[in-house]
Model the fold of this input.
Amino acid sequence: MLAETICSAVSAAGLGIAAITAYRKRYLSAARIAAWSLVPLGLVMTGAVEWAFDTVFSPVAWAGFGVLGVAWLLLLTVRGVERRRGGRKAAGGGAEPAAVAPGASARAGGRDALARPASGPTAGATGAEDFSDIEAILKKHGI
Done:
């Protein structure tokens, strides 16, 4: 009830200031002030002020925000651990999936694309061999 009264008083004061501004023949400024002064009144009429007031002073709402924060931190922690381990492990505990190019998706090769070992010249490639091509390209361009 107090919040609604304060918002209504702010709107009335703003409309008064807009009327004085319009009397001074500054109509654009008066229209802008009137528009901003109607916002609190509109918020009161829609019930947004009552909802916000009830949320701010509700211990249950703050406990809910705390639970959401804990859930968010837990998800971020799990995501960080997964990144450090190199992705999710296979459910069956068998061989790990073959490396996939960063831009490739799992659908591009079908469902069995991750289960099959890679074939071709890069099947046994190590990290040093992979970077030798990149180094050659950079040297060619003088970088």
